[in-house]
Amino acid sequence: MESTLDIFVKAIFSENMIFAYFLGMCSYLAVSKTVKTGVGLGAAVIFVLGITVPINYLLENYVLKEGALEWLNEAYGKGGEKTIDLSFLSFIMFIAVIASMVQLVEMLVEKFAPALYGALGIFLPLIAVNCSILGGALFMQDRQYSTILDATAFGIGSGIGWFLAIVAIAAIREKIRYSNVPPALRGLGITFIITGLMGIAFMSFMGIKYGGDKKEKAEVVKTSQVINDQIQE
Amino acid sequence: MSDNAENVKAPKESLFSKKNKKLITEPLGDNNPITIQVLGICSALAITVQVEQAFWMSVSVIFVMIFGNLIISLLRNLIPSRVRIIVQLVVVASLVIIVNELLQAFVPDVSEKLSVFVGLIITNCIIMGRFEAFAMSNKPFPSILDAIGNALGYAWILIVVALVREVFGSGKIWGYEIFGSNIPDEATGKMTGLYELGYVNNNMMILPPMALIVVGVIIWVQRSRNKELVEEH
Lengths: 233, 233
What we know:
Chain A is an all-alpha fold. Chain A has helices spanning 4-12, 17-21, 25-30, 35-64, 90-112, 114-120, 123-127, 131-143, 148-176, 188-202, 214-232. Helices cover 69% and strands 0% of the residues of chain A.
């Protein structure tokens, strides 16, 4: 089994939202002109992912999944008489949770942390339609994390990965203004190519060994034992 | 009665006037949603490893866009502007649920490969972008044309990128080997076609970052041909 820390590190580096799945590219390209705005949007993404992924995890496991309504009545559980599978509703539920959470968070932040609101303010409404947030919820559903802690670690980790990506590209874009880029590549074109190159660099993190890899090692030992046994026979 | 009503509603301009044709042709070239407006990249690039996936993704987006634009355009005078984002999200989410169920029913293996990316059509910026920019302020028929134009503009980029990646990455088009087989024949122990002469697939093309670089190159070509599109850094 993967430990929570594995999930966290994996979400930041080897399964980075931007470089491995291209999620949230629209705002990533539009808001990465300066480091300051990049930091603002990145922080807002960490914040919202950290809140919505656990909420959607609870929703998935106690309402939507096949047999998840067991806590209401045993007949609704998996293998019960009237099993209920609401998973086809997950898209609409997730997006509703995200849109309303974003609205709620915006109001709370405005009321209780005006300074933070000043920094995040304009970016919060943008986030409802940021693919990385819905992507976080859908990946959480796809990978079926076993505890809410794992799901939260995944959410915050993906947020941090997104933050790193946008801050890095914003810093590069600030500097690239002084270079002589071919006219037709200026702006969007070069940003795409740089993101691609950064993605190649980030792929090196795929070589990290996580705790979950131990299982594969055990299997390797097993096959070698089988071969040894055969030789002895 | 119905005849009269139709006569009253008869459009003043012909169905395919110059203006309406422009709605379709512009997004294919100089106002392309991906390369010029920078919308809809989020969920697009990750599924361009094979032409088949890209094709089904494009079909799904065309379907969602046409009906979404139509519905939003019909509802445009009823939606209060404060909650319009949520209304739009609900409309898209319901359409995407339909698409997802259809894909699972008729092309299950493709649906499995697309996994979370079908769900991510909901937050595809191209759809929200067209709702905001066009359907909210135009009549149903032009909205449908606008949807077709933009969805096709999105589709051709997706399919071209997928074609490049599949041909150079795995030597196939739509799963058919075009350069011969690179798996040695059991009887002769030889590879066939180009592979026998020493040709090797570029595995780099299959990795996610190359999608960005291919799109970057498309943008480069497009902007070198039309100098008006060149950005000032």
